[in-house]
Specification:
Blueprint: H1 8-15, E1 23-28, E2 36-42, E3 48-55, H2 63-83, E4 109-111, E5 114-120, E6 125-126, H3 134-151, H4 169-182, H5 189-200, H6 207-213, E7 220-222, E8 231-234, E9 240-243, E10 250-252, H7 254-265, H8 283-297, H9 303-307, H10 309-330, H11 342-359, H12 361-378
Antiparallel strand pairs: 1-2, 2-3, 3-5, 4-5, 6-8, 7-10, 8-9
Helix pairs in contact: 3-7, 3-8, 4-10, 5-11, 7-10, 8-12, 10-11
Length: 379
């Protein structure tokens, strides 16, 4: 879709940033559940592309703090990369660059109640909604490990908690209870199944937060949403080269990141599938993701970190299912939907994935122990 009258307002917003040349084209980008995103193409040799996004203020109540976090992480990562990163060798790693507005010199523009930002597009790369191979799974894990490695020494005190309660599972359970208490009478096999599923696993919700409160786990900078399609793969090599969608960067437990990455990668059918009975957590893909992750991140993991990897996998699938189900009961106010019952279907997929993880607990724990032993033997 090239620029025209219907895109004039968007073009004006994009032009408020310090672009390198005139805008040639502007088109919708991606299928995110929260923000509106557009690809901006600018004239130049070569052409340069950027991502224009309107942050959802219903989700990010203080979007200026989101941008402050993004700028802090970008500055830190760029400094680490400039110093050199032994993990990468000759590999390419690129961090999204935030452009400033021309007038206010801020990393955002406000127009008619909308809060907009412009970031660099990761060229010669692509993302995938579903992992297609063992090699790709390993690269996704390695990408997350590199990201964690690069920000592992970034003090959390310098990051705002832009989404209080985000990836704090007991908070989601409290919200679920509040929504359920005021929801109209619920019927249907899927709803009843979800209600029973949550009740049977209430004690699961607090496992990581209890470990944090006891001092076993500590807060670190996290990505917050490292699902498979937020890891960019270099087109020519297939290697991970960037993590994108950094809105949710904040202090947290890296286990939420690891669990979310595994939840996303190890469900070959993806979270939008309608084939509930076929949903399974693929332990072979889990091996590849964890192998890639640990190759980059094992240097800063503690014994307690390893001990909580399995419960993180189970918890995050449960947590996301709980969030989808809560939103279904609330009338679909958070996640975008394109049909009635969409969030209920998403919840059922995540709960089925949780069951699959639980059924393979012994195999998964043995795998973690094996990978840890291999790393210890190689060091």
């Amino acid at each position: 879709m090239t620029l025209g009258d219907t895109n004039g307002e968007l073009a004006a917003i994009a032009a408020a940033f310090e672009l390198p040349g005139p805008i040639l084209a502007l088109e919708p980008l991606g299928n995110g559940n929260v923000n509106d995103s557009y690809l901006v193409v600018c004239d130049g040799a070569p052409l340069q592309r950027f991502v224009l996004q309107r942050l959802n203020r219903a989700v990010f109540a203080q979007p200026e703090l989101v941008m402050a976090n993004m700028m802090a992480v970008a500055e830190h990562v760029e400094a680490r990369l400039t110093q050199g990163c032994d993990l990468l060798g000759e590999r390419r790693w690129e961090h999204p660059r935030v452009l400033l507005s021309g007038a206010e010199r801020r990393p955002w523009v406000e127009r008619d109640g909308g809060f907009w930002r412009l970031i660099s597009f990761i060229e010669s790369s692509r993302s995938f909604d579903v992992v297609a191979s063992a090699e790709q799974a390993r690269e996704v894990g390695f990408g997350l490990g590199v990201f964690h490695h690069l920000i592992s020494d970034l003090p959390t005190a310098g990051l705002a908690d832009t989404l209080e309660g985000f990836h704090v599972t007991p908070r989601y359970l409290q919200h679920y209870d509040a929504v359920l208490a005021r929801a109209p009478s619920v019927v249907g096999h899927g709803v009843l199944h979800c209600l029973a599923f949550v009740e049977e696993r209430r004690d699961v919700a607090s496992v990581l937060e209890t470990a944090r409160a006891s001092g076993q786990l500590r807060l670190r900078p996290i990505h917050g949403d490292p699902k498979v399609n937020n890891v960019m793969m270099e087109v020519c090599s297939g290697r991970a080269c960037a993590l994108v969608d950094l809105d949710t960067v904040k202090p947290g437990l890296i286990h939420y990141d690891i669990g979310d990455c595994l939840r996303s990668c190890c469900n070959p059918l993806g979270e939008e599938t309608a084939e509930l009975e076929a949903v399974v957590f693929d332990v072979n893909l889990c091996r590849e993701v964890l192998s890639g992750y640990l190759a980059a991140a094992s240097g800063f993991l503690t014994t307690a970190d390893y001990d909580h990897l399995y419960v993180a996998m189970r918890l995050i699938s449960f947590e996301l299912g709980l969030r989808f189900f809560t939103d279904h009961l609330a009338g679909n106010v958070y996640f975008r939907t394109d049909r009635p019952g969409h969030n209920l279907q998403r919840a059922l997929v995540q709960f089925r994935l949780t069951e699959s993880i639980e059924a393979q607990e012994t195999q998964i724990r043995d795998l973690i122990a094996e990978l840890r032993a291999d790393l210890a033997g190689a060091s």
